[in-house]
């Protein structure tokens, strides 16, 4: 093994660059992994461009997930040569993340690579797809059977949204995709109809006409407020993003008069059991054929440019970062 490795680093003055690091600089952990792939997520764009206080210590290697092969381990759970993946647990925020050739993390943060996915496929899915699985699992707890009623997915062209569309479609739910992007792309993933965000009618009423049996929202702000007012009796809205705004203006009426549920999804600190179950869910219900459709491949050299693009809403699908 060589003495140094390459990593993309954010410094305290908010500058970023690809640099060579020594293994002694890695943070505490009982498993050392050679990273093969990572993915690019909205949170990574915020961190790299310093648009939100994502990074909690400097210097920091961003990257909210990775897949790779164990090089060294003092954990009984993992041995040299095991294929693993990591999502969340503060990597890229408080602990060095995936935009690196190597990572050293706690064994509790890792899961073994699911049998049906390659290291590359696991990162095309990545943190976004794993989050989408958690969202869909939450939604179908309440809406147990598909019907003729619509399920809305916002930010549907993004990482969480596009995989949520495919999962729901494969479970035979009727999916309406809210997006500003490619209709053909989302129809191919399983959306039955498309609403352009420019034509989405915002509501300031506490209750509006009932349109959605359920929804998965990645956007927040006025869109989430409107969805809550439009959700059908006994419906559910699953919230997992704030791409538009973290502010939510609503009333108690949807909850006490229509018995709807607003359920939040955290992917960062979800339990080991939840993580494994989410990946098993993806193995069972995600159509692997879509992974080529949603994948865009980039490198460390592209990270600053794609940060600008993702914050402008110009990224479609999933961005895979090949490390080796």
Keywords, please?
15 strands, 324 residues, 2 domains, 9 helices, alpha/beta, Quinone Oxidoreductase, Chain A, domain 1, Rossmann fold, six-stranded parallel β-sheet
Structural account:
The chain has about 325 residues and is an alpha/beta fold. It has 2 domains: about 5-115 and about 290-320, Medium-chain alcohol dehydrogenases, catalytic domain (Quinone Oxidoreductase, Chain A, domain 1, Alpha-Beta Complex), CATH 3.90.180.10; about 130-265, Rossmann fold (3-Layer(aba) Sandwich), CATH 3.40.50. It is built from 9 helices and 15 strands. Strands 3, 4, 5, 6, 7, 14 and 15 form a 7-stranded mixed β-sheet that branches. The longest helix is centred in the middle third of the chain and has 24 residues, at about 120-140.
Write the layout of secondary structure elements.
Layout: E1 4-10, E2 16-22, E3 31-40, H1 42-48, E4 65-73, E5 83-87, E6 102-105, E7 110-112, H2 119-142, E8 150-153, H3 159-170, E9 174-179, H4 183-189, E10 193-196, E11 212-217, H5 221-230, E12 231-239, H6 253-257, E13 261-264, H7 272-285, H8 291-294, E14 295-298, H9 303-311, E15 318-322
Parallel strand pairs: 8-9, 8-11, 9-10, 11-12, 12-13, 14-15
Antiparallel strand pairs: 1-2, 3-4, 3-6, 3-15, 4-5, 5-7
Helix pairs in contact: 1-9, 2-3, 2-7
């Amino acid at each position: 093994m060589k003495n140094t490795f390459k990593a993309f680093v954010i410094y305290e003055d908010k500058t970023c660059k690809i640099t060579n690091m020594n293994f002694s600089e890695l943070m505490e952990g009982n498993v050392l992994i050679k990273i093969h792939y990572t993915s690019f997520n909205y949170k990574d764009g915020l961190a790299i461009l310093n648009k939100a206080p994502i990074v909690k210590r400097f210097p920091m290697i961003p990257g909210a997930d990775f897949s790779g092969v164990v090089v060294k381990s003092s954990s009984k759970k993992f041995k040299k040569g095991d294929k693993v993946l990591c999502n969340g647990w503060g990597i890229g925020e408080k602990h060095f993340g995936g935009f690196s050739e190597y990572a050293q993390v706690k064994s509790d943060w890792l899961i073994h690579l699911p049998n049906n996915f390659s290291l590359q496929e696991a990162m095309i899915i990545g943190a976004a797809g794993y989050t989408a699985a958690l969202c869909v699992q939450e939604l179908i707890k309440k809406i147990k059977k598909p019907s003729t009623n619509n399920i809305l997915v916002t930010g549907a062209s993004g990482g969480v949204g596009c995989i949520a569309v495919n999962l729901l479609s494969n479970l035979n739910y009727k999916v309406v995709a809210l997006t500003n992007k490619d209709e053909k792309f989302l129809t191919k993933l399983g959306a039955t109809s498309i609403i352009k965000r420019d034509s989405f009618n915002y509501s300031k009423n506490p209750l509006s006409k009932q349109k959605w049996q359920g929804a998965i929202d990645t956007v927040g702000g006025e869109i989430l407020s409107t969805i809550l007012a439009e959700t059908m009796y006994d419906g559910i809205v699953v919230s997992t993003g704030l791409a538009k705004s973290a502010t939510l203006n609503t009333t108690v009426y949807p909850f006490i008069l229509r018995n709807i549920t607003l359920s939040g999804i955290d992917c960062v600190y979800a339990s080991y059991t939840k993580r494994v179950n989410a990946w098993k869910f993806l193995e069972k219900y995600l159509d692997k054929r879509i992974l080529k459709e949603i994948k865009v491949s980039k490198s460390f050299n592209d990270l600053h440019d794609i940060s600008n693009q993702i914050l402008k809403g110009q990224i479609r699908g999933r961005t895979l970062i090949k490390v080796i």
